[in-house]
From TrEMBL:
Domain Histidine kinase: start-end pairs: 565-782
Keyword set, alphabetical order: Kinase, Membrane, Transferase, Transmembrane, Transmembrane helix, Two-component regulatory system
ATP-binding is among the record's keywords: no
Domain PAS: 428-474
Stated name of the protein: histidine kinase
Source organism, top-level taxon: Bacteria
E.C. number(s) listed in UniProt: 2.7.13.3
InterPro entries: HATPase_C_sf, HATPase_dom, His_kinase_dom, HisK_dim/P_dom, HisK_dim/P_sf, PAS, PAS-like_dom_sf, Sensor_HK_Regulatory
Transmembrane intervals: 6-31
Annotated catalysed reactions: ATP + protein L-histidine = ADP + protein N-phospho-L-histidine
Keyword Transferase included in the entry's annotation: yes
CDD domains per the UniProt record, alphabetical: HisKA
C-alpha cells in the first residue's frame, strides 16, 4: 500500500520503529543521566564528607603520586612555608631561608614512593631554634594507579609549648610524652611516684641506679626502696594538705651514707605522690663545718677583751661575750633570754651604760633602723656617764642581723690627751729656747722648726711654709750671704752628712758676727735634727782665753829659758866659790883657826845644797821645755832602788831616821831610763825623809804585777796633825809639789815629771793616823 505522499507502509513501519527506538533510547538516556547525577551527587557528598573529616583532623595532608606529584591545601603549604603553587615533591625541599623539608627527608619519601621501601614513621624535622619541630606521618593508600594518590603525608607541629596549642595530635602527644619521659629519666636526682597504697608506681633511671636495680620494671616488681619504708607520715601529710612536704632523709648509695632533701608533692585526688630526693650531703657537711666555725668563732670572740654582741635578723641577741656583759651591766640571765635589741637598749639605759641622749627614742629608732639600711660598717663614739669612752663599730652580719664591736678607748684618749699636752709643752719649750732647732724628715723636707731657727738664719714665715727642703735651706742661706764664704764648709757638707746619718758638729761664723755651734743628730724615725747654739759670747771668751793661754805659754817659755840661763850663769861662780872653799878647807893657803875651819865647812855645805838646787831647777826646766829625751833600756828596779837608797842613807843617818827596804827579787825589770829612774827613787826617798819625824822610820817597798811595778815610800809618823796632812795631800793632788821641813818641793816636782815621762803615775796618800805614803806605778813596757 502506498500513501498519498508516496511512502509505503513498510517505510512507515520502519520510520515508526525508528521513532520508537529513538524514544526508548531517549528514555534510557534520561534514566541513565538521572542515575549518573545521583551517583555524582553521592560522590560529591562523600567528597564533602571526607573533606570535612580531613579538615576536622589537626593534621595537614599532602597527597603524593608515584611520579612525585603532590597536592595539598593552603594550610599544608603554609605550615611548610612554601608557595601554594608547588605541585612536585622536589619543590618541597628546603631553601636557604630554612623553609620546606630537608633534602634527606625528601629523598626518604621519594625512595618510598618509587620502590615501595619502608619509610620510618613518624619523621621528626627539627626546624631550628625557637621553632616547633615538624612531625610527618606517611599513610600509604591502597590505589596503585598513576592517576590516583599513592600516599598521604600528614603534617603537624610538635607540642613544644603545649599551653598555647589548640590542636593536639596523637603523634605530637606521643612525641611530647617521649620528651617528658626522657627528661624524667635524665634528672640527676632520684624521682619516684607512689600510689594510694604507698607502693611504687613509677621511678626514673636515677632511682634505679640509686637502689642498684636493673631497670625501672625490675625496681617496680621488686619494690626496691631508696629509704626505709617506716616513715609514711609525710606522704599522708602531703595528701591531706595538698601541698609539698619536705623532710631530711638519709640513705646509702654506692656504699656511702648520704643525706637527701626529699620533697613529696601530691599529684591527684587518687593519692599519687611524686617524690624527689636531692643529695645535700655537701650542704650537710657545709652546715656542720659552718656550725663548727661558728662555735670556734664564738669561743674566740668570748676570749676577746673587747665587748662583742651579735644580733640576729629578728633583732634578738644571738651572741655576746663576757666583756659585753661587763660593759652592759645587764645580768647574763637576761642576756641569754634572747632579749631584743630594743629591750637591751632600754636595760642598758636604766643601768646608765649608754651615752646620754637628748631624744633617746629617736636615737634608738636610728639604731634599730640599721637592720634594714646599713650596708657598710658604721663607726661612732660612745661616751658613757662613768667617764669611759668606747669606739662602737656596727656592721651587717653575714648571716643577717648586726655585729657590734666595742673598743674601750678610754686609756687611748687619755694617752692622746697626755701626748697632745706633752707635745704642746715641748712645742712651747722649743719655741722659748734660745737654741735654734730644725727637724728634717727622711725625705729631706723641713718638718719642724722653732722661732730661734728662723731668727738665726733670717728666714721669713713664708720661707718655712711649703715643706722647704734641706738643699733649698742651704742654697737660701748662701744666697742671702748670711754666712761668710770661708765659713760655708759645714753648710755645703750638710746634705752629705744627713745622708750618712752620723752625728756631726760644726761651727759657723755669720757675716754680721754671730757664731753658731751646729750639731746634726740622727732621729729614730729616719729624720735628722739640726741644732744651732749662739756661742758668740762664749766664742769671744774662748778667744780671749786662748790669747791669754798663748801669752802664758810664751811667758812660761821665757821663764824656763830664763831659769836655764840663770842656772848656767849661777853654776860658774858657784863652782869658783866651792873651789876656793875646798882649797881653804885643805889649808893650801895656810892654817886657820877652828872657827875659820867651821865657817869654811858651812860655806861648802851651803854651796853643795845650792849646787843641787840649781841642778834640780835646771833639770825641771829642761823637762818642762820638752828638751829631754829618755834612753829606754831594761832596768832592774830592785837594783836601781838599792843604789838610790844607798845615796840617801847618809841623809837619813844625819836626821836619825831609820831607812828600811822591802825589795823582793821577783820585782823584775822594766823599760826605763836608768839614770832618771834612780834620780826619781832618790827624790822620792829624800822627800819622804823631810816628812818623817826625827828618830822615826821610813820604809821602801816594791811590789809588782805582770804589767807594772809599784814603789811605795812612807812613814807612819809624819809629825803633822790631820789638818796639815790633808792640806798637804790636797795640794799634791792639785799638781803642786809642797816642800818639807828641809826641802823646797823641787824633788817631788822633778819626780812627778820623770814618772809622767815614763807613762806612770804618782800619788800621795795618808797612812794610818799620822803617816804618809808616796807611791808610784810604772809600766813594764812603754806604749808607743
Amino acid at each position: 500500500m502506498e500513501f498519498a505522499s508516496g511512502l509505503t507502509v513498510t517505510a512507515m513501519a520502519v520510520l515508526f520503529a525508528v521513532l520508537l527506538t529513538w524514544f526508548g533510547v531517549s528514555l534510557y538516556a534520561f534514566w541513565r543521566a538521572g542515575r549518573m547525577n545521583d551517583r555524582a551527587q553521592s560522590l560529591q557528598d562523600l567528597a564533602d564528607f571526607l573533606d570535612s573529616m580531613i579538615k576536622t583532623d589537626h593534621r595537614y595532608p599532602i597527597w603524593l603520586w608515584p611520579d612525585g606529584r603532590v597536592q595539598a591545601d593552603a594550610g599544608a603549604f603554609s605550615l611548610l612555608g612554601v608557595p601554594e603553587k608547588i605541585t612536585n615533591l622536589d619543590d618541597l625541599a628546603s631553601s636557604t631561608s630554612g623553609k620546606g623539608l630537608p633534602e634527606e627527608t625528601i629523598q626518604v619519601i621519594r625512595d618510598g614512593l618509587e620502590t615501595g621501601c619502608y619509610v620510618p614513621s613518624p619523621l621528626v624535622i627539627d626546624r631550628g631554634r625557637n621553632k616547633a619541630r615538624l612531625i610527618i606521618d606517611i599513610q600509604w593508600l591502597p590505589s596503585k594507579e598513576m592517576r590516583w594518590p599513592y600516599a598521604i603525608m600528614w603534617l603537624e607541629e610538635a607540642l613544644e609549648n603545649p599551653g598555647i596549642k589548640k590542636r593536639r595530635g596523637v603523634r605530637a602527644l606521643e612525641l611530647r610524652l617521649k620528651d617528658l619521659t626522657r627528661a624524667f629519666n635524665s634528672l640527676p636526682y632520684p624521682v619516684w611516684v607512689r600510689g594510694a597504697d604507698n607502693s611504687l608506681v613509677e621511678v626514673n633511671e636515677s632511682y634505679v641506679e640509686a637502689v642498684d636495680g636493673i631497670s625501672a620494671e625490675d625496681v617496680l616488681d621488686k619494690g626496691l626502696e631508696l629509704f626505709d619504708r617506716g616513715k609514711y607520715a609525710s606522704l599522708q601529710k602531703a595528701r591531706e594538705t595538698g601541698h609539698s612536704v619536705r623532710e631530711r632523709r638519709f640513705g646509702v648509695i654506692a656504699g656511702q651514707r648520704r643525706a637527701f632533701a626529699v620533697t613529696k608533692t601530691p599529684l591527684d585526688a587518687e593519692g599519687h605522690v611524686l617524690s624527689i630526693a636531692v643529695d645535700v650531703t655537701g650542704e650537710e657537711e657545709a652546715l656542720s663545718e659552718l656550725s663548727r666555725v661558728l662555735e670556734s668563732q664564738s669561743e674566740t670572740l668570748n676570749r676577746l677583751r673587747s665587748p662583742v654582741a651579735i644580733f640576729g635578723p629578728g633583732q634578738t641577741l644571738r651572741f655576746y661575750n663576757s666583756a659585753f656583759a661587763r660593759l652592759s651591766h645587764v645580768s647574763e640571765d637576761i642576756l641569754s633570754s634572747e632579749i631584743s635589741h630594743s629591750e637591751l637598749l632600754d636595760a642598758m639605759r636604766d643601768k646608765r651604760r649608754l651615752p646620754e641622749q637628748v631624744n633617746f627614742l629617736q636615737w634608738k629608732v636610728n639604731i634599730l633602723r640599721q637592720y634594714t639600711t646599713l650596708l657598710e660598717p658604721f663607726e661612732e663614739m660612745w661616751h658613757l656617764p662613768d667617764g669611759s669612752a668606747h669606739r662602737v663599730v656596727t656592721q651587717p652580719h653575714p648571716l643577717g642581723g648586726l655585729l657590734i664591736l666595742f673598743e674601750d678607748v678610754t686609756d687611748s684618749l687619755a694617752l692622746e690627751r697626755s701626748y697632745n699636752t706633752l707635745i704642746a709643752v715641748q712645742q712651747e719649750t722649743l719655741d722659748s729656747m734660745r737654741e735654734g732647732i730644725a727637724v728634717f724628715g727622711s725625705n729631706g723636707l723641713l718638718q719642724f722648726s722653732n722661732p730661734a731657727f728662723s731668727e738665726m738664719w733670717g728666714l721669713a714665715e713664708a720661707d718655712l711654709k711649703g715643706d722647704m727642703h734641706l738643699s733649698s735651706f742651704v742654697e737660701r742661706v748662701i744666697e742671702k750671704q748670711i754666712v761668710e764664704h770661708s765659713q760655708t764648709g759645714f753648710l755645703a757638707e750638710l746634705s752629705s752628712l744627713v745622708a750618712e746619718r752620723k752625728h756631726a758638729t760644726g761651727r759657723i761664723k755669720q757675716r754680721l758676727g754671730p757664731v753658731l755651734d751646729c750639731a746634726l743628730v740622727p732621729m729614730p724615725d729616719g729624720g735628722i735634727m739640726l741644732t744651732q747654739t749662739d756661742i758668740t759670747d762664749t766664742f769671744k771668751v774662748e778667744q780671749a782665753l786662748r790669747e791669754r793661754s798663748s801669752a802664758l805659754e810664751a811667758a812660761d817659755r821665757l821663764k824656763s829659758e830664763f831659769i836655764m840661763s840663770m842656772s848656767y850663769e849661777l853654776r860658774t861662780p858657784l863652782n869658783s866659790i866651792m873651789g876656793f872653799a875646798e882649797m881653804l878647807d885643805q889649808r893650801i893657803f895656810g892654817d886657820m883657826t877652828d872657827q875659820q875651819q867651821s865657817y869654811i865647812k858651812n860655806i861648802l855645805s851651803a854651796a853643795d845644797q845650792l849646787k843641787k838646787l840649781i841642778s834640780d831647777v835646771l833639770d825641771l826646766a829642761v823637762i818642762e821645755a820638752g828638751e829631754v829625751s829618755l834612753d829606754f833600756i831594761e832596768v832592774d828596779v830592785r837594783d836601781a832602788m838599792k843604789e838610790a837608797a844607798d845615796l840617801v842613807q847618809e841623809l837619813a843617818r844625819k836626821v836619825n831616821i831609820a831607812l828600811t827596804l822591802d825589795c823582793p827579787d821577783t820585782v823584775g825589770h822594766i823599760m826605763a831610763d836608768e839614770l832618771r829612774l834612780k834620780q826619781t827613787f832618790y827624790n822620792m826617798v829624800s822627800s819622804m825623809l823631810n816628812f818623817a819625824r826625827y828618830g822615826g822610820e821610813v820604809f821602801v817597798k816594791l811590789s809588782s804585777t805582770n804589767d807594772s811595778v809599784s814603789v811605795s815610800v812612807g812613814n807612819q809618823f809624819s809629825g803633822m796633825v790631820a789638818v796639815e796632812r790633808d792640806r798637804l795631800i790636797e795640794t799634791f793632788e792639785m799638781g803642786a809639789s809642797p816642800g818639807g821641813r828641809r826641802a823646797t818641793g823641787l824633788d817631788l816636782s822633778l819626780a812627778r815629771s820623770i814618772i809622767k815621762m815614763h807613762q806612770g803615775e804618782i800619788r800621795l796618800e795618808p797612812l794610818d793616823a799620822e803617816g804618809l805614803v808616796l807611791s808610784c806605778v810604772l809600766p813594764r813596757v812603754q806604749k808607743v
